[in-house]
Amino acid sequence: MVISRSPEISILGDFNVHHQLWLSSPFTDHPGELAYNFAILHDLEQLVQHPTRIPDRLGDTPNILDLFLTSNPSAYAVTLSSPLGSSDHNLISLSCPITPIPPQDPPKRRCLWRFASASWGDLRQYLLIFLGMTTASVSETRLCVLSA
């Protein structure tokens, strides 16, 4: 079993596309079809569910033109607010919980044995005196050091 972990994808902006089924638009245009196919192909979910454009001319209808496509929809909450200034688009706010990365423990001091730098002759002499050994080979010395 192979588990592949893909990075999260989030795309947002004023797409100005129309799609009847996907975005509840009065019609579907070619860019709307392309955006819809792109979202399906990349397993993206569109989170803006209410019209973002406010009609400013007679005959216009409210539309969802500002999209937020993401591969991780459960991580986000979308809210719409009144337009800022003279904009004909509602303000879109996205929120997601951000968990801080916990600080790492500082490195711990540890003892390193540098066997290549050891003075084996001095160690052998010490073991002869300390342990009362008459002779000690290199392999016996290493065995004593490693088992300590």
TrEMBL record:
Pfam families the UniProt entry points to: Exo_endo_phos_2
MF (Gene Ontology): catalytic activity
Gene Ontology annotations for the cellular component aspect, listed alphabetically: extracellular matrix
InterPro entries: Endo/exonu/phosph_ase_sf, Endo/exonuclease/phosphatase
Domain Endonuclease/exonuclease/phosphatase: 8-92
Gene Ontology terms: biological process: cell adhesion involved in heart morphogenesis; larval heart development
Residue ranges of coiled coil: none
Protein name: Endonuclease/exonuclease/phosphatase domain-containing protein
Organism this protein belongs to: Scylla paramamosain
